[in-house]
Amino acid sequence: MDGHLLRFFDYLEIERRYSANTVAAYRRDLSRFAADIRRPWTEVRAHDVTAHLSRLHGRGLKPRSIQRVLSSLRSLYRFLKRHRLVTEDPTVGVRGPKSRRRLPGVLDTDQASRLLSFEPRTPLECRDLAMAELLYGSGLRLTELTGADVADLDLEGGFVTVRGKGGKARQVPLGRHSIRALQQWLDCRTDSALVHSRSGDRSQIKRPLFTGRGANRISPRTVQQRLKRLALLQLGSSELHPHMLRHSFASHLLESSSDLRAVQELLGHADISTTQIYTHLDFQHLARVYDAAHPRSQRQDD
Predict the structure, then answer these.
(1) In sequence order, what are the residues at sequence separation of 6 or more whose Cβ sits closer than 8 angstroms to the Cβ of residue 210?
(2) Distance (Å, rounded) from C-alpha 42 to C-alpha 45?
(3) How much is the pLDDT for 288?
(4) Are 181 and 166 in contact (CB under 8 A)?
(5) Which is it for strands 153-154 and 159-163: parallel, antiparallel or unpaired?
(6) What is the pLDDT of residue 286?
(7) What is the DSSP string of 24-44?
(8) Which of 29, 64, 82 is at the close of a domain?
(9) How far apart are CA 144 and CA 269, in angstroms?
(10) What CA–CA distances, in Å, run from 3 to 88, 177, 205?
């Protein structure tokens, strides 16, 4: 791999603190482009970029994936220009294919209530309920959930500190149901080395909040599998994933408050345009209510 790319990946990992998965995606996109073009980064021109995108389209790559490739190239050339390693940015003016923005699936409030309405009887069920309550009650990302430590909790104060994208920390409030479920999980944990202070004492030995086998940190895959199991038992369908609970959290908050800025802060979105997708969800909900209830929405027979 050439020196320009190595410097760029170091920048993403060290300065921007991007996750390993994000850096791996950049690495795949840029390595594939370099292998396709076969010329130094200083000699790449706009027609090289458009030709590469066209070839990806011809291979059946989806528009959203092609947009990601273009975004990777733009980030690279912004970095190279800032460090005066190139004089031209060949991505300027290049447009990727338009893709229809998919709205995230959400549970309605009744489904969310049924999902969480059970009394756990085993340590695993205590853990599953606490995870589901935290994902829906506080809108956490999956990586934020699996990366949380016991010391990040302050049950007395009613909040949890999470580390979002780029390692940026934020405090998220906990609802009373989440606090109850989390305390129940902490009380029934089997790892004997766990010490927990209800006041949020951060001097305790660092321990993962949610564990899998033994005292090991739970894996994202295990969270996904346990949520599907929970949904099958409570809702009769396994069509549930962690991000659906985050989407439901945001959608239900907006339906009740319409405070987009507050939801942006709670979700940890750097750009409010990311949060605005939930306004479309809210509109869809309002449209369904209108169609079902308003007399002017009904087609009248002659």
Answers:
(1) 127, 130, 131, 145, 146, 148, 185, 217, 218, 223
(2) 9
(3) 52
(4) no
(5) antiparallel
(6) 44
(7) HHHHHHHHHHHHHH-S-GGG-
(8) 82
(9) 13
(10) 18, 52, 40
| Whether 217 and 120 share a structural domain | yes
In a domain? residue 206: yes
Which residue in 226, 233, 234, 243 sits closest to 117, CA to CA? 234
- Asked if 162 and 229 sit in the same domain, the reply is yes
| 30 and 117 assigned to the same domain | no
The reply to whether 117 and 222 lie within a common domain is: yes
User: Which parts of the chain sit beneath pLDDT 50?
Assistant: 103, 192-204, 281-283, 285-287, 289-290, 294, 296-297, 299-302
| Sheet hosting strand 153-154, strand order edge to edge | 153-154, 159-163, 169-173
pLDDT of residue 102: 53
The set of catalytic residues is 141, 165, 243, 246, 269, 278
- The answer to the question of residue 133 being in a domain is yes
CATH number at residue 202: 1.10.443.10
Domain that holds residue 42: 3-82
User: What is the structure's pLDDT at 260?
Assistant: 64
Query: What's the pLDDT score for residue 122?
Result: 92
**Where is the domain boundary, 188, 212, 236?**
236
Is this structure's pTM higher than 0.85?
no
What's the CA gap between 96 and 75, in Å, rounded? 15
Nearest CA among 267, 9, 17, 281 for reference residue 138: 267
**167 and 52 in one domain?**
no
pLDDT digits (tens, 9 = 90+) for 104-120: 577 888 889 999 999 99
